[in-house]
Amino acid sequence: MSDTVLVTGATGYIARHAVAQLLDAGHTVRGTARRAEAAQGLRSDLTPHLADPATIDRFSLVVADLGSDDGWVAAVAGCSQVCHVASPLPAGEPKNPDQVIRPAVDGTLRVLRAAASAGVQRVVLTSSIAAVLYGVDRRGKVFTEADWSNPDAKGIGTYERSKTLAERAAWEFMATPEAGALELATINPGLVLGPMIGSEASTSNESVRKLLARELPACPDLTYAFVDVRDVAAAHVAALTAPSAAGHRHICAIDSHSLREVAAILAREYGPKGYRVPTGKLPGWGLKVAALFDKTAAMALNDLGNPQRIDNTRVVQLLGRPLRDLEEMTLAMAASLEHYGHVQPKARRRS
Ligand code: NAP
Fold this sequence. Notes:
By secondary structure, this protein is an alpha/beta fold. The protein is built from 13 helices and 13 strands. It has a domain at 4-192 and 228-254 and 309-323: NAD(P)-binding Rossmann-like Domain (Rossmann fold, 3-Layer(aba) Sandwich). It has a seven-stranded parallel β-sheet with strand order 3-2-1-4-5-6-11, with helices on both faces. A two-stranded parallel ribbon has the order 7-10. 47% of the residues are buried.
């Protein structure tokens, strides 16, 4: 069996780290992207992040879109494993929910079908805690892999619905004869922070970017289960081969922290550099007002007064070490945002 791993959506924030870690671990990696032109930029972004820059020669890119059957059979051909990372991650509620839900669900099934018929051993699907703890009562509950979001709950966001339906469709596919000997594991990350590989910003960067750019006068008291992108990628790599991972979901996050803790870390480190990070508490009504004109704030309304408590025992066992802490992931993301020019100190901005 070959040692080629397919990584779908290789252009994305998380997938870039997965590609880099797979190359470092000695694998040959084939990525998918929607545009062939992404290849050159991706190679130059990845190369400085590799333990041995020469291993970029083991990386190739093919074109496939989750919304079309074209290209998936060729993409999986000869691969022993697949990380299916690609899925739309909108910055706000889409006008047409199907623009997010259809690529998430149909794309997952396209990848699984192609993988099963090509004799791939295992698919690791990037799901989310969006598929674990949305549309349900969170009060007093610590969520585990046994828990599922309710995609039919009133007010659930389209993204959370898309991730729940996609993961559900994946496990349902695995129960059909078509799946054959294929194995599935899912990684269910929380809110991902940590360093960027390349300058392209993603939805994940928004919370830290908004704080550094002081786009709100105060910080919403939202409590999330955060995780470092390097740990998310490492969990994917481990789940590709660990015998214990097959057939399991893995919640991948540290237990919950307030966004105000992120703001406090940023204020301490970046305040002296001229950034005016808002650390005061934005009251709930303030977030509701902000949500009227800010798409990302609107998406966060479901999390207001609704903390995310999770049990990460399974992923810690998979990795054999603790996950990175809030300070490390926050400062690494802030450093990337500054390095790639997404934020700058107030003083310099005026000049
Ligand atoms: P990202 O940077 O926006 O990456 C999303 C990737 O999906 C991109 O490569 C994008 O390709 C690809 N994609 C979107 N629609 C597609 C389509 N129709 N056909 C083919 N590819 C498509 O976001 P990310 O944070 O790395 O997210 C990656 C995965 O992690 C997603 O499954 C997301 O749900 C999951 N996740 C993310 C977080 C988080 O906080 N970031 C948390 C939990 C789970 P283009 O470059 O062509 O747009």
